[in-house]
What we know:
Blueprint: H1 2-31, E1 35-36, H2 39-47, E2 52-56, H3 60-65, E3 66-68, E4 72-73, H4 79-82, E5 93-97, H5 105-115, E6 121-124, H6 127-133, E7 138-140, H7 155-163, E8 169-173, H8 177-182, E9 189-190, E10 208-213, H9 217-228, E11 234-238, H10 239-244
Amino acid sequence: MQRKRNxxxxxxxxxxxxGIMTAAVQAHGAENxxxxxxxxxxxxxxxxxxxxxxxxxxxxxxxxxxxxxxxISIPENKFEESVNLLPADKNKLLVFYCNGVKCxxxxxxxxxxxxxxxxxxxxxxxxxxxxxxxxxxIVAGPEYGNKVETKAMSPAELAKLIDNKSKEYxxxxxxEEVEYRQGHIPGAINIPVDVxxxxxxxxxxxxxxxxxCNTGVRSYAAYRKLMRLAYPSMAEAKFVDxxxxxxxxxx
Length: 251
């Protein structure tokens, strides 16, 4: 009798393990079922007037502020309400985009389109921030160029974070690489502002992202890009203030 119980327990463990493995495989497959297209590929598709529907999965507010030329707005969280905007032909190519590589809205919207029966789905994962950064064609709303208020961080506040070895932030020098090598704030990484959105995948969204340049022009541009990338916590500092306050420079 005891032997029979042991056999049953063993079989239960094996079945459970197989279930976990199957779920993991299915989850992995779900993450990789959509074809990714790069910025250059999407531009080539648009230039060639390829027959496809480009879908902006961001919020209606973000879409109204600015979007890629030719895109229609179907927010991921309102997909069911807007599914009638999609083509009747379920075989037509759909390309989804949102706020960059760390934004999951485009994949979620594409998954909902799959459930609705659409069979040809692509993801432009670099999204609107990189498209905008490369100065490609966009439709800009009336408030697109309005100045935004940034959260300023003083040298003393930044020094305190550094001294306390806080792990709650990432400090980014958005100047050119040669400027960074000549001297930067201790602990800063370098992502030049011209490629900031394209390289933003290294920046964790759960941390406070602090950007700085010499006097604030480039850091302001990087701050706006963080907003486009939907980072929830960010701040701006100035290298000139750091130096004037007598804090150390790292080379």
